[in-house]
Design a protein that fits this description.
Blueprint lengths: L3 H23 L9 H23 L2 H8 L1 H14 L5 H21 L10 H21 L5 H30 L11 H22 L2 H24 L7 H43 L1
Helix pairs in contact: 1-2, 1-3, 1-4, 2-7, 3-9, 4-10, 5-10, 6-7, 7-8, 7-9, 9-10
Length: 285
């Protein structure tokens, strides 16, 4: 049960996040306004976030975060349907590779949950380290070209989103005791700060350069940071031998590479869509 139910919820969350994102993307008017269907996309994505939170409450970050990456994969057929086109061989190939990698990772590691919350001192130390890393990314972005600036801002946004997933797991663990428990611990308030920072750095990344640069960095950093925090701060473990550990490391590498390829293709298509909308705006102006 500790694997099946959270895994199913995580997969459903990934599908809803993909659907909600596409609905929002395709529901803006030619002049940039927001339609009623845009709010439907927000509601769908919010439901996906709720399912992800429940999955994190029942399972480990090592299990849930890789499965959330499937949102990139779910977006492929949905977007192809909206564009009235067929998926090409390249998309099918990397989509199948990503699916097999995620399935192999879960089946080999059989990850088990650790603690629901990190100790206050450990959490404070982790926050200091993350702030230093985040500050380094933000400061470094000021001294590089626009291409690398978008890459660093995208990495910062992905880092913050991964931290957000870790904090959500902590809040879900507190709910097991009582609803009022979440208001006397820092995780809930940190989520607000982290989520705001994630949105701001994402917008900075989009403003700096094209989506092909920043989107893959965001997509890869989120699960990597979430899984690392689960192992280091919550004591989550994967049950593998030394040889299986090398296999899992290879699988994770391929999974991240496949995610980057698919995210880059998604960014390219989204950029093409935005260019088309911009042309329509100029024609109707």
């Amino acid at each position: 049960m500790h694997l099946v139910l959270p895994a199913v919820l995580a997969v459903l969350a990934a599908a809803l996040v993909a659907l909600g994102t596409l609905v929002r993307q395709r529901s803006s008017t030619v002049r940039g306004g927001i339609t009623k269907r845009w709010w439907l996309g927000v509601a769908i994505a919010a439901l996906g976030f709720v399912l992800q939170a429940v999955a994190l409450g029942l399972g480990s970050l090592l299990l849930v975060q890789p499965l959330i990456v499937l949102s990139v994969l779910f977006a492929l057929p949905l977007e192809a349907h909206l564009d009235r086109r067929r998926l090409n061989v390249h998309e099918w190939k990397w989509g199948v590779i990503l699916t097999l990698c995620i399935a192999a990772f879960v089946l080999i590691t059989m990850p088990t949950p650790g603690k629901h919350n990190a100790q206050a001192g450990v959490l404070a130390g982790a926050i200091v380290v993350l702030v230093v890393v985040l500050g380094g990314l933000m400061v470094g972005a000021r001294f590089v070209s626009l291409h690398y600036r978008a890459l660093l801002y995208g990495a910062a946004s992905g880092l913050l989103t991964g931290v957000q997933s870790f904090l959500v797991k902590g809040v879900m663990g507190q709910l097991d005791r009582s609803v009022g428990e979440i208001f006397v611990h820092p995780e809930l308030y940190l989520i607000i700060v982290v989520a705001t920072g994630s949105v701001l750095t994402q917008q900075l990344a989009f403003a700096a350069h094209d989506l092909q640069t920043s989107f893959p960095a965001m997509t890869v950093m989120e699960p990597a940071v979430g899984m690392a925090l689960g192992v280091v701060l919550l004591g989550e473990r994967a049950h593998v031998s030394t040889f299986e550990g090398f296999v899992v490391a290879f699988i994770l590498g391929v999974m991240m590479f496949a995610t980057v390829i698919l995210a880059k293709h998604a960014a390219e298509r989204e950029t093409a869509f935005e260019v088309c909308v911009e042309k329509q705006r100029s024609l109707t102006a």
